[in-house]
Amino acid sequence: MSDIHNVIIIGSGPAGLTSAIYTARANLKPLVFAGLEFGGQLMTTTEVENFPGFPEGIVGPELMQHMIKQAKRFGAEIVHQNVSKVDFSGEVKRVWVGADEYKARSVILATGASPRKLGLPSEQEFWGKGVSSCATCDGAFYRDKVVSVIGGGDSAMEEATFLTRFASKVYVIHRRGEFRASKIMQDRVLNNPKIQVIWNTEVLEVKGQDVVGSLRLKNTETGEESDLAVDGMFLAIGHIPNTKFLGDAVELDDQGYIVVKDKTHTSVEGVFVGGDVNDHRYRQAITAAGMGCMAAIDLERWLEEKGVEVDTTADTYTNPVPA
Ligand code: NAP
Protein backbone atom coordinates (compact mmCIF):
# COMPACT_ATOMS: atom_id res chain seq x y z
CA MET A 1 0.00 0.00 0.00
CA SER A 2 3.04 2.29 0.04
CA ASP A 3 2.04 4.12 -3.15
CA ILE A 4 -1.41 4.86 -1.76
CA HIS A 5 -1.39 7.98 0.37
CA ASN A 6 -3.64 8.31 3.40
CA VAL A 7 -4.87 11.69 2.29
CA ILE A 8 -4.31 14.03 -0.63
CA ILE A 9 -5.14 17.69 -0.02
CA ILE A 10 -5.71 19.84 -3.09
CA GLY A 11 -5.21 23.54 -2.42
CA SER A 12 -2.92 25.59 -0.20
CA GLY A 13 -4.92 28.53 1.06
CA PRO A 14 -5.90 28.73 4.74
CA ALA A 15 -8.33 25.79 4.30
CA GLY A 16 -5.88 23.41 2.61
CA LEU A 17 -2.99 24.24 4.91
CA THR A 18 -5.08 23.97 8.08
CA SER A 19 -6.25 20.55 6.84
CA ALA A 20 -2.58 19.72 6.27
CA ILE A 21 -1.59 20.77 9.81
CA TYR A 22 -4.40 18.73 11.39
CA THR A 23 -3.97 15.59 9.28
CA ALA A 24 -0.18 15.76 9.68
CA ARG A 25 -0.51 16.01 13.46
CA ALA A 26 -2.85 13.01 13.29
CA ASN A 27 0.11 11.13 11.77
CA LEU A 28 -1.55 10.76 8.37
CA LYS A 29 1.37 12.15 6.33
CA PRO A 30 -0.77 14.27 3.98
CA LEU A 31 0.34 14.95 0.45
CA VAL A 32 -0.60 18.53 -0.44
CA PHE A 33 -0.89 19.74 -4.01
CA ALA A 34 -0.27 23.41 -3.37
CA GLY A 35 -0.64 24.60 -6.96
CA LEU A 36 1.98 26.43 -8.97
CA GLU A 37 1.00 29.60 -7.11
CA PHE A 38 0.58 28.47 -3.52
CA GLY A 39 -1.26 30.31 -0.78
CA GLY A 40 -4.56 31.30 -2.36
CA GLN A 41 -6.12 34.73 -2.24
CA LEU A 42 -4.03 35.93 0.73
CA MET A 43 -0.96 35.97 -1.52
CA THR A 44 -2.42 39.02 -3.25
CA THR A 45 -3.57 40.73 -0.06
CA THR A 46 -1.44 43.26 1.75
CA GLU A 47 -2.11 43.75 5.46
CA VAL A 48 -4.33 41.16 7.17
CA GLU A 49 -5.69 42.72 10.36
CA ASN A 50 -8.54 40.37 11.17
CA PHE A 51 -6.79 37.02 11.54
CA PRO A 52 -6.68 36.34 15.30
CA GLY A 53 -3.25 36.11 16.87
CA PHE A 54 -1.59 38.99 15.03
CA PRO A 55 -2.47 42.15 16.97
CA GLU A 56 -0.23 44.29 14.76
CA GLY A 57 -1.57 42.65 11.58
CA ILE A 58 0.44 40.52 9.20
CA VAL A 59 0.92 40.69 5.43
CA GLY A 60 -0.95 37.96 3.55
CA PRO A 61 2.05 36.16 1.99
CA GLU A 62 3.84 36.06 5.37
CA LEU A 63 0.79 34.50 7.02
CA MET A 64 0.72 31.83 4.32
CA GLN A 65 4.46 31.19 4.73
CA HIS A 66 3.83 30.60 8.44
CA MET A 67 1.05 28.14 7.63
CA ILE A 68 3.15 26.20 5.14
CA LYS A 69 6.07 25.99 7.59
CA GLN A 70 3.71 24.77 10.29
CA ALA A 71 2.30 22.07 7.98
CA LYS A 72 5.81 20.96 6.94
CA ARG A 73 6.93 20.85 10.55
CA PHE A 74 4.45 18.07 11.22
CA GLY A 75 5.45 16.14 8.13
CA ALA A 76 3.06 17.34 5.41
CA GLU A 77 4.57 16.82 1.98
CA ILE A 78 4.00 19.88 -0.20
CA VAL A 79 4.09 19.59 -3.99
CA HIS A 80 3.98 22.85 -5.94
CA GLN A 81 1.97 21.52 -8.86
CA ASN A 82 -1.54 21.98 -10.18
CA VAL A 83 -3.84 18.97 -10.22
CA SER A 84 -5.12 18.49 -13.76
CA LYS A 85 -7.80 15.85 -13.28
CA VAL A 86 -9.25 13.40 -10.75
CA ASP A 87 -11.15 10.12 -10.66
CA PHE A 88 -13.06 9.49 -7.43
CA SER A 89 -15.19 6.62 -8.76
CA GLY A 90 -13.28 3.85 -6.99
CA GLU A 91 -12.46 3.20 -3.35
CA VAL A 92 -8.94 4.39 -4.07
CA LYS A 93 -9.06 8.02 -5.18
CA ARG A 94 -6.92 8.96 -8.19
CA VAL A 95 -5.40 12.36 -8.83
CA TRP A 96 -3.27 13.44 -11.79
CA VAL A 97 -0.67 16.13 -12.21
CA GLY A 98 -0.15 16.05 -15.96
CA ALA A 99 0.76 12.44 -16.76
CA ASP A 100 1.72 11.58 -13.16
CA GLU A 101 -0.90 9.69 -11.19
CA TYR A 102 -1.24 9.75 -7.39
CA LYS A 103 -3.52 7.56 -5.29
CA ALA A 104 -5.09 8.11 -1.88
CA ARG A 105 -7.56 6.65 0.59
CA SER A 106 -9.19 10.05 1.03
CA VAL A 107 -9.10 13.57 -0.39
CA ILE A 108 -9.71 17.08 0.91
CA LEU A 109 -10.70 19.62 -1.75
CA ALA A 110 -9.67 23.15 -0.80
CA THR A 111 -9.07 24.93 -4.09
CA GLY A 112 -10.91 28.11 -3.17
CA ALA A 113 -12.67 30.57 -5.42
CA SER A 114 -11.18 33.39 -7.43
CA PRO A 115 -12.78 36.82 -7.45
CA ARG A 116 -14.15 37.59 -10.89
CA LYS A 117 -12.25 40.45 -12.47
CA LEU A 118 -13.13 43.00 -15.11
CA GLY A 119 -10.23 41.83 -17.24
CA LEU A 120 -8.54 45.23 -17.61
CA PRO A 121 -4.71 45.39 -17.69
CA SER A 122 -4.86 48.44 -15.39
CA GLU A 123 -6.96 46.51 -12.85
CA GLN A 124 -4.12 44.00 -12.58
CA GLU A 125 -1.51 46.77 -12.37
CA PHE A 126 -3.26 48.35 -9.36
CA TRP A 127 -4.22 45.08 -7.63
CA GLY A 128 -3.35 45.55 -3.95
CA LYS A 129 -2.63 49.25 -4.62
CA GLY A 130 -6.20 50.45 -4.41
CA VAL A 131 -7.92 47.63 -6.27
CA SER A 132 -9.31 44.94 -4.00
CA SER A 133 -12.01 42.31 -3.95
CA CYS A 134 -12.53 42.24 -0.18
CA ALA A 135 -13.95 45.20 1.73
CA THR A 136 -13.86 43.26 5.00
CA CYS A 137 -10.11 42.81 4.51
CA ASP A 138 -9.11 46.20 3.16
CA GLY A 139 -11.93 48.62 4.03
CA ALA A 140 -10.21 50.00 7.13
CA PHE A 141 -7.40 51.41 4.98
CA TYR A 142 -9.87 53.84 3.41
CA ARG A 143 -10.78 55.97 6.39
CA ASP A 144 -12.10 59.33 5.15
CA LYS A 145 -11.32 58.39 1.55
CA VAL A 146 -13.48 58.05 -1.54
CA VAL A 147 -14.01 54.53 -2.81
CA SER A 148 -15.98 52.78 -5.52
CA VAL A 149 -17.68 49.39 -5.55
CA ILE A 150 -18.32 47.65 -8.87
CA GLY A 151 -21.35 45.35 -9.18
CA GLY A 152 -25.04 45.16 -8.54
CA GLY A 153 -25.51 41.95 -6.55
CA ASP A 154 -25.78 41.30 -2.81
CA SER A 155 -22.00 41.35 -2.44
CA ALA A 156 -21.76 44.83 -3.94
CA MET A 157 -24.52 46.06 -1.60
CA GLU A 158 -22.83 44.46 1.39
CA GLU A 159 -19.38 45.79 0.50
CA ALA A 160 -20.68 49.31 -0.18
CA THR A 161 -22.62 49.43 3.09
CA PHE A 162 -19.63 48.10 5.02
CA LEU A 163 -17.29 50.64 3.42
CA THR A 164 -19.42 53.57 4.63
CA ARG A 165 -18.03 52.84 8.12
CA PHE A 166 -14.68 54.15 6.94
CA ALA A 167 -14.95 56.01 3.67
CA SER A 168 -16.25 59.55 3.35
CA LYS A 169 -18.02 58.63 0.10
CA VAL A 170 -18.82 55.36 -1.66
CA TYR A 171 -19.80 55.15 -5.33
CA VAL A 172 -21.55 51.99 -6.49
CA ILE A 173 -20.93 51.60 -10.20
CA HIS A 174 -23.26 49.20 -11.98
CA ARG A 175 -23.39 48.25 -15.63
CA ARG A 176 -27.20 48.21 -15.78
CA GLY A 177 -30.07 50.40 -14.62
CA GLU A 178 -31.23 48.06 -11.85
CA PHE A 179 -29.60 45.94 -9.18
CA ARG A 180 -29.97 42.19 -9.00
CA ALA A 181 -29.43 42.32 -5.21
CA SER A 182 -32.25 41.48 -2.78
CA LYS A 183 -34.58 44.36 -1.98
CA ILE A 184 -33.49 44.73 1.63
CA MET A 185 -29.82 44.97 0.64
CA GLN A 186 -30.62 47.44 -2.16
CA ASP A 187 -32.62 49.61 0.21
CA ARG A 188 -29.68 49.83 2.59
CA VAL A 189 -27.55 51.19 -0.23
CA LEU A 190 -30.17 53.47 -1.77
CA ASN A 191 -31.01 55.01 1.61
CA ASN A 192 -27.44 55.53 2.75
CA PRO A 193 -26.48 59.22 2.35
CA LYS A 194 -22.80 58.32 1.96
CA ILE A 195 -23.50 56.13 -1.09
CA GLN A 196 -24.08 57.40 -4.62
CA VAL A 197 -25.08 54.95 -7.33
CA ILE A 198 -23.74 55.45 -10.84
CA TRP A 199 -26.08 53.47 -13.13
CA ASN A 200 -25.50 52.08 -16.63
CA THR A 201 -21.78 52.53 -16.37
CA GLU A 202 -18.73 50.38 -16.96
CA VAL A 203 -15.12 50.92 -16.00
CA LEU A 204 -12.75 51.33 -18.94
CA GLU A 205 -9.53 51.94 -17.05
CA VAL A 206 -8.06 52.31 -13.57
CA LYS A 207 -5.72 55.28 -13.43
CA GLY A 208 -3.22 56.62 -10.90
CA GLN A 209 0.45 57.13 -10.10
CA ASP A 210 1.54 54.46 -7.62
CA VAL A 211 -1.95 53.89 -6.25
CA VAL A 212 -5.46 54.27 -7.63
CA GLY A 213 -6.38 57.91 -8.30
CA SER A 214 -9.34 57.76 -10.67
CA LEU A 215 -11.47 55.59 -12.93
CA ARG A 216 -12.23 56.14 -16.60
CA LEU A 217 -15.94 55.41 -16.98
CA LYS A 218 -18.27 54.90 -19.89
CA ASN A 219 -22.03 55.33 -19.83
CA THR A 220 -23.42 52.23 -21.54
CA GLU A 221 -26.49 54.10 -22.81
CA THR A 222 -25.00 57.33 -24.14
CA GLY A 223 -21.42 56.14 -24.77
CA GLU A 224 -20.20 59.23 -22.90
CA GLU A 225 -16.84 58.84 -21.14
CA SER A 226 -15.75 60.56 -17.92
CA ASP A 227 -13.18 60.44 -15.12
CA LEU A 228 -14.17 59.82 -11.50
CA ALA A 229 -11.66 60.58 -8.73
CA VAL A 230 -11.48 57.67 -6.25
CA ASP A 231 -8.88 56.25 -3.87
CA GLY A 232 -10.01 52.67 -4.21
CA MET A 233 -11.97 50.27 -6.37
CA PHE A 234 -13.63 47.24 -4.79
CA LEU A 235 -14.74 44.52 -7.18
CA ALA A 236 -17.92 42.71 -6.21
CA ILE A 237 -18.84 41.08 -9.50
CA GLY A 238 -18.96 37.53 -8.22
CA HIS A 239 -16.49 34.72 -7.61
CA ILE A 240 -15.51 31.73 -9.70
CA PRO A 241 -15.02 28.52 -7.69
CA ASN A 242 -11.92 26.63 -8.75
CA THR A 243 -13.63 23.36 -9.61
CA LYS A 244 -13.08 23.00 -13.36
CA PHE A 245 -10.45 20.28 -12.93
CA LEU A 246 -13.01 18.14 -11.03
CA GLY A 247 -15.28 17.57 -14.01
CA ASP A 248 -18.29 15.69 -12.62
CA ALA A 249 -16.28 13.82 -9.96
CA VAL A 250 -18.26 15.45 -7.12
CA GLU A 251 -21.62 17.18 -7.01
CA LEU A 252 -21.46 20.92 -7.67
CA ASP A 253 -24.23 23.49 -7.25
CA ASP A 254 -25.52 25.60 -10.14
CA GLN A 255 -22.72 28.12 -9.60
CA GLY A 256 -20.01 25.44 -9.59
CA TYR A 257 -19.38 25.32 -5.82
CA ILE A 258 -18.88 21.92 -4.18
CA VAL A 259 -21.97 20.68 -2.37
CA VAL A 260 -21.65 19.14 1.10
CA LYS A 261 -23.83 16.20 2.00
CA ASP A 262 -22.95 15.57 5.62
CA LYS A 263 -20.82 18.08 7.55
CA THR A 264 -17.78 18.52 5.27
CA HIS A 265 -18.32 15.26 3.37
CA THR A 266 -19.01 15.78 -0.36
CA SER A 267 -21.26 13.60 -2.52
CA VAL A 268 -18.40 11.09 -2.76
CA GLU A 269 -17.44 8.92 0.20
CA GLY A 270 -13.95 9.74 1.40
CA VAL A 271 -13.84 13.12 -0.34
CA PHE A 272 -14.13 16.17 1.91
CA VAL A 273 -14.20 19.90 1.27
CA GLY A 274 -13.04 23.01 3.09
CA GLY A 275 -13.01 26.74 2.43
CA ASP A 276 -14.29 29.02 -0.32
CA VAL A 277 -14.71 26.26 -2.90
CA ASN A 278 -17.77 25.32 -0.85
CA ASP A 279 -18.50 28.52 1.07
CA HIS A 280 -19.80 31.49 -0.86
CA ARG A 281 -21.16 33.26 2.15
CA TYR A 282 -18.34 34.08 4.57
CA ARG A 283 -15.22 33.89 2.37
CA GLN A 284 -12.79 34.83 5.15
CA ALA A 285 -9.32 33.44 5.82
CA ILE A 286 -10.39 32.50 9.33
CA THR A 287 -13.58 30.72 8.21
CA ALA A 288 -11.65 28.87 5.49
CA ALA A 289 -9.07 27.80 8.08
CA GLY A 290 -11.90 26.67 10.38
CA MET A 291 -13.47 24.62 7.61
CA GLY A 292 -10.09 23.10 6.78
CA CYS A 293 -9.87 21.96 10.38
CA MET A 294 -13.42 20.56 10.25
CA ALA A 295 -12.67 18.64 7.03
CA ALA A 296 -9.53 17.13 8.58
CA ILE A 297 -11.39 16.01 11.71
CA ASP A 298 -14.31 14.61 9.67
CA LEU A 299 -11.81 12.75 7.51
CA GLU A 300 -9.92 11.28 10.49
CA ARG A 301 -13.19 10.06 12.01
CA TRP A 302 -14.35 8.63 8.67
CA LEU A 303 -11.11 6.71 8.26
CA GLU A 304 -11.49 5.37 11.78
CA GLU A 305 -15.19 4.46 11.44
CA LYS A 306 -14.61 2.78 8.09
CA GLY A 307 -11.60 0.94 9.45
CA VAL A 308 -9.62 2.14 6.43
CA GLU A 309 -6.11 0.87 6.76
CA VAL A 310 -3.74 3.83 6.90
CA ASP A 311 -0.01 4.24 7.21
CA THR A 312 0.72 6.03 10.49
CA THR A 313 4.47 5.63 10.62
CA ALA A 314 5.10 9.36 10.34
CA ASP A 315 7.35 10.72 13.07
CA THR A 316 5.20 13.76 13.55
CA TYR A 317 6.73 15.50 16.52
CA THR A 318 10.45 15.40 15.82
CA ASN A 319 10.62 17.81 12.89
CA PRO A 320 12.14 21.22 13.56
CA VAL A 321 10.36 24.26 12.18
CA PRO A 322 11.69 24.49 8.63
CA ALA A 323 13.67 27.61 7.70
P1 NAP B 1 -23.89 38.03 -8.25
O1 NAP B 1 -25.21 37.95 -7.58
O2 NAP B 1 -23.57 37.10 -9.36
O3 NAP B 1 -23.77 39.54 -8.79
C1 NAP B 1 -22.67 39.92 -9.55
C2 NAP B 1 -22.90 41.35 -10.00
O4 NAP B 1 -21.76 41.75 -10.72
C3 NAP B 1 -24.12 41.52 -10.92
O5 NAP B 1 -24.79 42.71 -10.60
C4 NAP B 1 -23.49 41.61 -12.31
O6 NAP B 1 -24.15 42.46 -13.18
C5 NAP B 1 -22.13 42.23 -12.01
N1 NAP B 1 -21.12 41.79 -12.95
C6 NAP B 1 -20.76 40.52 -13.29
N2 NAP B 1 -19.77 40.53 -14.18
C7 NAP B 1 -19.52 41.82 -14.43
C8 NAP B 1 -18.59 42.49 -15.28
N3 NAP B 1 -17.74 41.80 -16.04
N4 NAP B 1 -18.58 43.84 -15.28
C9 NAP B 1 -19.43 44.54 -14.49
N5 NAP B 1 -20.32 43.99 -13.68
C10 NAP B 1 -20.36 42.63 -13.65
O7 NAP B 1 -22.65 37.89 -7.23
P2 NAP B 1 -22.57 38.27 -5.67
O8 NAP B 1 -23.14 39.61 -5.43
O9 NAP B 1 -21.16 38.01 -5.28
O10 NAP B 1 -23.49 37.19 -4.97
C11 NAP B 1 -23.24 35.80 -5.14
C12 NAP B 1 -24.26 34.99 -4.34
O11 NAP B 1 -24.02 35.18 -2.94
C13 NAP B 1 -25.69 35.45 -4.59
O12 NAP B 1 -26.52 34.33 -4.54
C14 NAP B 1 -25.99 36.37 -3.44
O13 NAP B 1 -27.34 36.46 -3.11
C15 NAP B 1 -25.18 35.73 -2.32
N6 NAP B 1 -24.79 36.74 -1.32
C16 NAP B 1 -25.63 36.92 -0.26
C17 NAP B 1 -25.30 37.85 0.69
C18 NAP B 1 -26.21 38.06 1.85
O14 NAP B 1 -27.32 37.59 1.82
N7 NAP B 1 -25.79 38.71 2.90
C19 NAP B 1 -24.16 38.64 0.57
C20 NAP B 1 -23.33 38.44 -0.53
C21 NAP B 1 -23.66 37.49 -1.47
P3 NAP B 1 -25.60 42.07 -13.79
O15 NAP B 1 -26.57 42.25 -12.68
O16 NAP B 1 -25.75 43.04 -14.92
O17 NAP B 1 -25.46 40.65 -14.27
| Radius of gyration over all CA atoms, rounded | 22 Å
pLDDT averaged residue by residue: 94
- How many helices? The count is 7
Number of domains: 2
CATH fold naming of the largest domain: FAD/NAD(P)-binding domain
Order of helices and strands: EHEEEHEEEEEHEHEHEHEEEEEEEH
Domain FAD/NAD(P)-binding: 6-292
Subunit structure: Homodimer.
InterPro entries: FAD/NAD-bd_sf (IPR036188), FAD/NAD-binding_dom (IPR023753), Ferredoxin-NADP_redctase_2 (IPR050097), Pyr_nucl-diS_OxRdtase_2_AS (IPR008255), Thioredox_Rdtase (IPR005982)
Keywords: Disulfide bond, FAD, Flavoprotein, NADP, Oxidoreductase, Redox-active center
Task: Looking at this protein, list some descriptive labels.
323 residues, 19 strands, 7 helices, 23% helix, five-stranded parallel β-sheet, 2 domains, elongated, FAD/NAD(P)-binding domain, alpha/beta, binds NADP nicotinamide-adenine-dinucleotide phosphate, seven-stranded mixed β-sheet
Structure description:
This protein is an alpha/beta fold. It has two domains: 178 residues, FAD/NAD(P)-binding domain; 119 residues, FAD/NAD(P)-binding domain (3-Layer(bba) Sandwich), CATH 3.50.50. It is 23% helix and 26% strand. Strands 1, 2, 5, 6, 7, 8 and 19 form a seven-stranded mixed sheet that branches. Strands 10-17-11-12-13 form a five-stranded parallel sheet, with helices on one face. A three-stranded antiparallel sheet has the order 14-15-16. A hairpin with a 2-residue loop joins strand 7 and strand 8. Helix 1 packs parallel to helix 2 and helix 1 packs parallel to helix 7. The radius of gyration is 22 Å and the shape is elongated. The mean pLDDT is 94.
